[in-house]
Design a protein that fits this description.
Elements lengths: L1 E5 L3 E8 L6 E9 L6 H14 L6 E6 L5 E7 L8 H12 L8 E7 L9 E9 H13 L3 E7 H12 L7 E8 L2 E8 L2 E8 L4 H15 L4 E5 L5 H9 L5 E3 L7 E2 L6 H5 L6 H7 L4
Parallel strand pairs: 1-4, 3-14, 4-8, 9-12, 12-13
Antiparallel strand pairs: 1-2, 2-3, 5-7, 6-7, 9-10, 10-11
């Protein structure tokens, strides 16, 4: 599986195979240009990555920075029929994009785990522009690839956390996507998504403040996991000093086999936090 993570202005890519018990990393790369590029330009770079590394698969899992998606948490009446969830999402889209019809988007909805929250149920609605998806899928097919999954980077990292990390399914944990000028935060309880939110702020002080809000609303967290371009050791140390000692940057390559022969592997393995969403996407092999 080729996992591709499209950030705002950069892309990370990995190739994993699943022949043995432990997935194997065969190729790693990063380049300028991300989800703002045209589908044709995106796929040309994927093709170049596959050819340069003699990829063993034509399946591609693409994950997009949450900043390029429309994601909202909506209150819905307790006991609301699932058949009405998409109507709630469509109404919310129309409020923010009155010039577009709901058909202009592909929307997925997910009922959040209640956790300790009392009151109305809460619905996570995530939408992506249909023309972007159609263009990406067409370009991939034109070059002999198959689009296996399209996801938001936060949710691909959640998948990595609950499937490959030993703490991902235990108690209450926070996943923090530390982007440039943006924070994405997920709260998980025993592996189930309880809450999601984002802020256009990326400082250490903002990270600490939002973690305090999560604690006040959901209760004490047992661990904080970071990923993204700003999930550096400096940020980890700062959050530990701010009162979150169980804080760590995720390393998606821990526990995976590294295939020999990739001259770039050592260089990219030195900054693994940048590749978590690409690996999380590639792990969706089923």
């Amino acid at each position: 599986m080729i996992g591709v993570s499209l950030a705002d202005s950069e892309t990370q890519a990995v190739e994993l195979s699943f022949d043995g018990i432990i997935p194997t990393v065969h190729a790693i790369a990063e380049w300028n240009g991300g989800c703002r590029d045209t589908p044709a330009a995106i796929v040309q770079r994927i093709k170049a990555f596959a050819e340069a590394n003699t990829a063993r698969t034509n399946r591609v899992a693409v994950t997009i920075d949450m900043g390029a998606l429309f994601a909202q948490v909506l209150p819905v009446p307790t006991g609301q029929a699932e058949s009405l969830f998409h109507k709630h999402a469509a109404w919310d889209l129309a409020e923010f994009h009155p010039d577009l019809t709901p058909d202009a988007f592909i929307t997925d909805v997910h009922l959040l785990h209640a956790g300790t929250h009392e009151g109305p149920m809460r619905l996570l609605s995530v939408s992506v522009r249909r023309d972007f998806v159609r263009g990406l899928q067409t370009e991939l097919q034109h070059h002999g690839f198959a689009l296996h999954v399209l996801d938001g980077d936060q949710f691909s990292v959640e998948h990595f956390l609950v499937t490959r990390h030993p703490e991902g399914k235990r108690a209450r944990v926070v996943l923090l996507g530390a982007k440039r000028g943006r924070l994405d935060i997920s709260v998980l309880l025993d592996g189930q998504l309880v809450d999601y939110a984002s802020w256009h702020e990326g400082t250490l002080e903002a990270c600490a403040a939002k973690l305090m809000e999560c604690t006040a609303f959901h209760g004490p967290v047992q661990a904080v996991f970071l990923y993204g371009p700003r999930a550096t050791q400096e940020l980890v140390d700062g959050l530990r000093a701010a009162g979150y000692p169980a804080c760590e940057a995720l390393n998606p390559f821990a526990g995976l086999e590294i295939a020999p022969g990739n001259p770039l592997a050592t260089h990219f393995l030195a900054m693994p936090h940048r590749f978590v969403s690409a690996v999380g996407a590639a792990l969706r092999e089923d």
